[in-house]
Write the structure tokens for this entry.
Amino acid sequence: MPYENPFYAEPEYRKVLATQFSSVTPENQLKWEFVHPEQDVYNFQEADDIVAFAKANKQEVRGHALFWHSQNPEWLENGDFTADELRAILKEHIYTVVGHYKGDLYQWDVTNEIFDGQGRLRMQENIWLRELGPGIIADAFRWAHEADPSAKLFLNDYGVEGINAKSTAYYELAKQLLADGVPLHGFSAQAHWDMRWGMPQDIEANFQRFDDLGLETAITELDVRFTLPPSGIPTQDQLERQSKYYTDTLQACLNVLGCKSFTVWGFNDTYSWVPVFFEGTGAATIMFEDYTAKPAYYDMLAMLKDATPGKSPRR
Ligand code: G3I
């Protein structure tokens, strides 16, 4: 079952959010279906509350996401719009949403998940690509930049942490966009790990090649899921293995100079998308339901204390 949003009702959630993080990301509140539920209705209240909370706690805010195939409102997906109308709709949405937070959000996921696992653009699933063609990607970045010239604009996806067909498709796209003078500033990987599989050992090398293009990099949605024992309580061994996924990901980011943003996707197991979407798995975040911290939390904290950002010899 989807869970209630703890942001308003749970004091402990707010306390941990306020004190343990320097950057926050609205998990759903800036997605089209939430922020733009009807064609002529924008609903900024919940995202505004997050931004106000972040300001009060001297935190930065990442924006997610402007151009995606998922979590779009019905009026958009089932609407009967011409290409010109759709282009105007996207432009208006980007101007309105990015403009509303002008100067407040330091990074925006302009596009989210535009490539499939083989590194092909999602020409069917993504309404913008399907109806307007790949050239609309550059326009989305241009419009976002016009609406907030200070925000760093990202290409964001999952399965692009290491070097593979999909991340290489991004690398080629990024080079092309930069060559065309498009205001692209960053490439980010979500990092939703599953302990049934190992993790790539070349995250740093992958991020470094984007860094070499002059782009920032970021980890945007880190969590580490695994199959829970019948008791539902993770074993110590599982928690220690989980910690390694977290710290290896953090280390890769620390080693790349332009990796300036590192985000976990939820910080308490009660409020994680993982068990909702992957039955039998869970415990993917850095804290138990009662906010007790897991090894991943302590190990990342120790790593951050010792960190020398950008120590990679390649730069
Ligand atoms: O807001 C409705 C609520 O009104 C309704 O009563 C309730 C019951 O159905 O559902 C609520 O919406 C849910 C929403 O989360 C907010 O809780 C949706 O059903 C549920 O599908 C949605 O899941 C989100 C998921 O994206 C959808 O794709 C997760 O919270 C969110 O963590 C997840 O985030 C994505 C990133 O955006 C992109 N990368 C992958 C990541 C994990 O899937």
Q: What stands out?
A: The chain has 13 helices and nine strands. The longest strand covers residues 216-227.
